[in-house]
Each structure stands twice: as C-alpha cells, then as structure tokens.
Amino acid sequence: MSKYYVSRIYDFLRQLARHNDREWFAAHKEEFDELRSMWLADLDRLIDLMTVWEPGLSGQTAKTCAYRIYRDTRFSQDKSPYKLYFSAAISCYGRKAEMAAWYLHMGLPGVLTPSGMYGGLWMPPAPMLKKVRHAIVDNIEEFEEIINDPKLAAAAPGWAGESLKTIPKGWERNHPQAELLRLKEYGKFIPGDEAFFSSPSWVERAAEAFHLFKPLIDFLNYSIEEDT
C-alpha cells in the first residue's frame, strides 16, 4: 500500500530542511510538483466544503489561495530560497486582501509559525486596527458572545498574535476592555501537527475547525467595511 501523499510532503520538507538550495530542489522538482498537485486538489475540496457555509468563497480556488514555496529573501538575513511549509490564505476578498481570513499552515515543527488552522486579522494597518478596536468596544457584548462560544473557546483558547505591553494611546489605562485593546492582531489558532494532516480526513476536519472562526471573521470584516 502506497504511503498517503501528505506523509510524503512531510518527508519532502524534512529533506528540504537539510538541503535548502536550488540545486537540490531542481533535482527533486518533479516530486514537488506531484505532491503540490495532490495538495492543491485537496485544498480545492476544502474550499468547496467551506463554501457550503461561506458562499462568499464561491469563485475562490486553490490556485487563488495557495502561497508559493519560494521565499522572498530580499529583506531577510536568511537567504534560504524555499519555505519549509505549504500554506494558503482563504478569503472572500482574495489572498492578498488586508481583511480577516482563514489561513492553513502545514509545516515542520520548530518554525516561526506553528502548523495548523488560523482565523482572524493579521498585521492590519494602523487605521484598520483603530477601527476594529472601536468596533469591539462599541459592540462588546456581541464580541464577547462570539469569542466565548464554548466550542471556539475549547478549541482555540487565547489569542494568536502580538499584543502591546500597554494600552494604546487614546484609551484609559484601566479600561474594562484593556486586554482586548492591547491586541495588535485578532486571530485564533487550532493546532494541526503532522499526525493531523497525515490522516486522509484532514480536509473535513480542517473545514470543521475553520467553521468555528466564521463568526469572528464576519464581525471583523463587517467592522472594517462599515461606513467605508
């Protein structure tokens, strides 16, 4: 019985971690293309499952959501040319939009971004972040109902992302929502390790995980788009 293709992806990534250079990658490009093709097919299936409860994803495909494996090394001290993960941003607004979205990260442990499923708003520009903070305070009961949903709280406790050490300028130091206002990003994370993705049912399980993030993503994007 042949090994499930995701297990082969992880084997490929481990080899790539030891030989992260263009010569090795060129010699194994055919294998990479085969693995990526199978992963893109599953990513299409994941998007189809998500479209059932998020019709706005209609028209999005694996090719519009998946990131390339090639690193942008122009402004990095790390000049290794290839990423050690497969990833995709799934959004009604397209992969490059500065909006709340779903993010899939399948990679080796020990890298900066843990492997799993993310949902929320990352690195928003200052005006957008300011708008979201005001929306949270103005609609705090709705927001707390969303983030305190028992299923979401159990699967994705806490916040994924950076937080300020002090409350941002313009807000009282002892504001009742100080902890939420200090956040620089509003994201939730459900881990998914190699064992998770090496199961043929990972697509269905990832869709279920992503579904938990929908109310948060809806709130954030509505807040961003309101009166714009």
Short structural summary:
46% of the residues lie in helices and 11% in strands.
Labels describing this entry:
228 residues, alpha+beta, four-stranded antiparallel sheet, 10 helices, 4 strands
By DSSP (H or I, 4+ residues per run), the number of helices equals 10
**Biggest β-sheet: count, sense, barrel?**
4 strands, antiparallel
Number of E-type strands: 4
Low-confidence stretches: none
How would you state the average pLDDT, rounded? 94
Distance between the termini: 55 Å
User: How many separate domains?
Assistant: 1
Order of helices and strands: HHHHEEEHHHHEHH
Fraction of residues in helix: 40-55%
Question: Can you describe what's shown?
Answer:
This protein has helices at residues 5-18, 22-27, 29-51, 62-65, 126-138, 140-147, 150-155, 178-181, 194-197, 202-225, and strands at residues 85-90, 101-107, 116-121, 186-191. Helix 1 (5-18) crosses helix 3 and helix 3 (29-51) packs across helix 10. It is an alpha+beta fold. It is globular and about 60 Å long. The protein has a four-stranded antiparallel β-sheet with strand order 1-2-3-4. Helix content is 46%, strand content 11%. It contains ten helices and four strands, in the order H-H-H-H-E-E-E-H-H-H-H-E-H-H. It has one domain (5-225).
